[in-house]
Amino acid sequence: MKKDLSQSQKQLADISKKKIEEQKREAEEQAKAAAKAKNEAAAKAASQKLSAVNNQQQAALAAAAKGKPGQTIEVQATAYSTAEPGLSRYGATGIDLVKNPNCIAVDPKVIPLNSLVLVPGYGYAIAGDTGGAIKGHIIDVHFPSVAQCVSWGRRHIAITIIK
Asked: In the listed set 66, 86, 121, which residue is the last one of a domain according to the structure?
């Protein structure tokens, strides 16, 4: 009987141990799910904030450009992002591309630096940067993320210099 009791106690201890491990795994999974939900909510909020800031900047740039005629130039447009490794967050004119992402890199011989430019498919931007590969009728449109750059690709467009 002692042997049976000992075996029963051992089995009960094993069952209890397994139950505790299962509860621990469930708690870890719930914690991971909660952390994931929190991260997704934070990412969504950051994206919405960035979108709101971008919309405000577009509205401010559009208001500054309203009713002013300008020159139209045919260019080849590529894209870049400060999210790419090794790129500075500041443009050639000192513009902070994180705070003011609506910026394009230009050849100053073609488009004067600090010009306000309307880029189809992008919106209003400041010509606030230059680049080694930006020569002649080529512009580089800045985006906050590399994914947006890939989506933009390479385009032949007609931009308008507003002022």
From this structure: 66
* Residue-wise pLDDT tens digits, 36-59: 888 888 877 777 776 776 667 666
Facing residues of 120 across strands?
A: none
How many alpha carbons lie under 13 Å from residue 35 in its C-beta half-sphere? 6
Report CA-CA distances (Å) from 83 to 44, 78, 96, 144, 145. Answer: 18, 15, 13, 7, 6
What is the model's pTM?
0.59
Expressed as residue numbers, the domain containing 151 is 68-161
DSSP label at residue 133: T
Among 30, 46, 66, give the residue marking a domain's end.
66
- Does 60 lie in the same domain as 74? no
